[in-house]
Amino acid sequence: MDLERFIRERRGRWARLDALLADVERLPDKAIGVERLDEIVRLYRQACSDLSEARSLTANAELLERLNGLAGRGYRFIYRRSYGRRWLDAAREFLDHDVPATFRQERHAVLVAAGAFALGALVGLGAVLLDARNGERLTPAEFSSESPRARVERIERGEERIDSVEKASEFGAYLFSHNIQVAFLTFSLAALTIVGGVWLLFYNGAILGAVAGMYFLDGVHVFFLAWVGPHGALELPAIIFGGAAGLRLGQALLLHGEVATATALRRAFPAVWRMLIATALILIVAGIVEGSFSQFSAKTVPYPVKIGVAAVLALGLAAYLFARRPGASRHAS
Amino acid sequence: MSAIGERRGRVVVTPEHVEVVLDPAGLGHRFLALFVDLLVVLSLSVLVAQASLLFLPLGIAGIVRGVAFLLVGWGYHVYFEIAHQGQSLGKRTFKLRVVDGRGLPLALEQSFVRNAVRALDALPFGYAVGALACLFDRERRRLGDVVADTLVVREQRSIPTDRRLARERAFNSLRVPRILRAIRYQVGLEEREFLAALCLRAEALDAGARFDLMEEVATHYRRKLDVRDIPLGGEAFVRGLASILFADRAAAPHR
Predict the structure, then answer these.
(1) How many residue contacts between A and B have a Cβ separation below 8 Å?
(2) Distance, in angstroms, between B225 CA and closest chain A CA?
(3) Could you write out the DSSP letters of every residue in A58-118?
(4) Backbone dihedral region of B175: left (phi > 0), alpha (psi from -120 to 50 degrees) or beta?
(5) CB distance B62–A192 less than 8 Å?
């Protein structure tokens, strides 16, 4: 075998393929051109066959590694998927159709996540109603520094905490960044372990239930609804959706049955990423509401109005995601 | 089985029925790349914050800035993984690349999933969870890579165009029957590959090191093959030897 001749004869076309790939990896698809594409495909096939041949000829790690790298790059370029659509059209279709369709299709995951959260809320609420001291045990220390009634009076009597658009804007931005972090964390745990995600949802539900219970026992539940309702109507579903996306992916990763893991994951990705994007978008809106509207006391906005807004937001979200709309049925799967 | 196939890595079979090995990058390089990326994200964020203060009314500046931070923080990685074939600026600096577990470029959804799990990988500080996962995983994946079925691979350098393996000389004073026979019986396959690698890499070596190494190897083979009467320099001797091994079937060792 003449390895020297093997390299000498072929290195020209390897270098050419190398240079071509470097070019096209930088260019947009439209600028590549048929001729260049033809040449790349031809050179790539030759490189593949060279790699096979070289493996049978030599164990020289340096040569094999480089040829392997070249063939890998060519493969990556040739067998990729491309995105030809204008992004504005894609965005509209995404919101109009893809997101609601996905949520209808993945309603089982959403139900499981919502169930875990609701169960947690019931347990938290029940625990506090049975024994008021459970409230302090279940919730983080910051909730127990004063009684709910004292807190309500302090807030209602004092100045508006958020008294400028600027403050509302800053606070809202902080809130949605933090909440997205939490939602993605729930998503990650659910995707990797399933159980971890379910537990986190249950735990968050329990805290909410416990806090609600404490306010209820103190007789200030209307205040609670008016303060948590407007943003909670969006925020709580969003956390549940993040968890549901994780459960869907966790199912693909851990409970994929006879389908190969890699295949199951790839089938799950489109649904999962739509749910995640929806989660983030909802949380941004919720953060803006929480930073401003939710913070108004009864002096500025009466409680019935705030609770009404909460109901409208919750129903609107449910209708957008789960209601069958005329014209949408042809897409529904 | 070739030597490369036995190393750690994932084997992808292309539709041409050729195996391509994805060679996972180590924790160290990934950390360095991440550090560069974090610096870029941080400076972009500062820039955005300053710009929002200058150009936007105070009322919406907070919201716009918050959204911009999100876009920069989460979108930076997604953008580069999709638009720049899996290479963020940090990864490009350290010659790393994110690829799909099947050797293809990342799909948008996949990149998004991979980066959403950063929320977990980055815990509790300094990507400790991700680093641990990376250490224990055979393919050096952080949790985001596991979930999205992606790999961070080392980029191979491109094929050398002007280095040459021992080129057959017009006159090779080693080509005498006694030495040919000695080579055939005493130089094994592994030594042959070693000599090939030495000749391929010689030009990349520092001149002094190259001389010393060639002399050392030549001395070894002069003794082993019992060649005392041929006045060749170290490198000339090694290249002569290699060119016989690779050009001449008769002298090649028995398989």
Answers:
(1) 207
(2) 22
(3) ---HHHHHHHHHHHHHHHHHHT-----S-HHHHHHHIIIIIHHHHHHHTHHHHHHHHHHHH
(4) beta
(5) no
Q: What is the mean pLDDT of residues A179-204?
A: 91
Q: Tell me the backbone φ, ψ of residue A144, rounded to 5 degrees.
A: -100, 5
Beta bridge partners of B13: B19
Alpha carbon A316 to its chain's center: 20
d(CA A174, CA B69): 10
CA atoms of A232 and A175, how far apart (whole Å): 12
Contact (CB<8Å) B103/A76: yes
Residue pair A64/A48 in contact by the 8 Å Cβ criterion: no
Minimal CA separation from B36 to chain A, in Å: 21
pTM of the model: 0.69
Dihedral pair phi/psi, residue B100, rounded to 5°: -65, 150
Structure tokens at A214: 């404490």
Residue A149's alpha-carbon distances to A213, A221, A222, A302, in angstroms, are 13, 10, 12, 18
Q: Is B43 exposed, middle or buried (0-12, 13-18, 19+ CB in 10 A)?
A: exposed
Identify the H or E element spanning A309: helix A303-322
Examine the pLDDT at A74 and tell me if it is beyond 80: yes
pLDDT at B139: 85
Residue B62 CB neighbours (<10 A):
23
Question: Could you give the percent of chain B with pLDDT greater than 70?
Answer: 87
Query: Are A184 and B18 an interchain contact pair (Cβ–Cβ within 8 Å)?
Result: no
Among residues 26-85 of chain B, which lie with CB inside 8 Å of chain A?
A: 58-63, 65-67, 69-70, 84-85
d(CA A238, CA A280) in angstroms, rounded, equals 8
Is B113–A269 a contact, with Cβ atoms under 8 angstroms apart?
yes
User: How far is it, in rounded angstroms, from Cα B38 to Cα B42?
Assistant: 6
Label each residue of A162-226 as H, E or C: CCCHHHHHHHHHHHHHHHHHHHHHHHHHHHHHCHHHHHHHHHHHHHHHHHHHHHHHCCCHHHHHH
Could you say which DSSP state residue A30 is in? G
Cβ–Cβ < 8 Å for A331, A110: no
**pLDDT, tens only, B134-161:** 888 888 889 989 999 998 988 876 554 4
What's residue A321's pLDDT? 86
